[in-house]
Structures are given as C-alpha cells and as structure tokens.
Design a protein that fits this description.
Elements lengths: L6 H18 L3 H12 L4 H25 L5 H24 L2 H20 L1
Length: 120
C-alpha cells in the first residue's frame, strides 16, 4: 500500500517520535504507531512495522547520549539488549500471524498498563 503523505507531516511525526523517545528514554514507538495510523493514514501492521524501523536509530542515538552522560546501568545493557532483540524478533514474527484486532487490543492493553503503572 503506497500512501502519498506530505513531507511536512512525515517530518513532524519524526520530530514528535524522537522527542518522546529522547525525553523518556524510550516509548517513541508508543506515539509513533498512533501518529502513523492517525496522522499519516497507515494501516495497523504497516504502522507497527514502520514504527520499529523508525525507532531503531532514535533509540541508538538516545542510548549513546545516556551512556555518555552516565545514566545507563551498564550491568544491565547486554542482557537487556539480548532479551530485547529476541523479543523483537518474536514480536515481528507474530505481527504477521495475529489478526489486526488482536494486535490493536494488545497495543491498547500495553499502553493502558503503562499509563496505570505510571500513576502508582
């Protein structure tokens, strides 16, 4: 599915996603998916897959900044990175296998759980 989206909207989406990721040390994907779906008109699977691809360099840049400034827990980086890669591969595999509605409900549940967790 090819979409014609204007460059300004794409740039704005990238700035918002990067700002959230840099400010909170992650979570850019949580805003990237709704932005890709709502503002740019991508369908569910395409929005999730694109968000991951967009977030990868943002996470790398944020990680380097956090490490340089001494904010990263170095003893956690390698095991957490390995687990994240394994989880990312599993998630990408199941993205293609699950119905769109299930993906949407899981995404909503994760966002809701994160929001509730932040309150308490």
């Amino acid at each position: 599915m090819k979409l014609k989206v204007n460059f300004f909207k794409q740039l704005t989406a990238g700035i918002l996603t990067g700002a959230v990721n840099g400010l909170f040390g992650g979570g850019g994907g949580m805003v990237a998916v709704p932005i890709l779906k709502g503002m740019l008109g991508y369908e569910e699977r395409q929005a999730h897959a694109t968000a991951i691809f967009v977030i990868a360099p943002v996470c790398a840049a944020s990680a380097v900044t956090y490490i340089i400034n001494g904010y990263a827990a170095l003893d956690v980086i390698i095991p957490a990175a390995l687990g994240s890669v394994a989880g990312g591969m599993a998630g990408a595999y199941y993205l293609n296998k699950c119905p769109k509605t299930i993906i949407n409900y899981i995404f909503i549940a994760v966002m809701l759980a994160a929001g509730i967790r932040m309150l308490f």
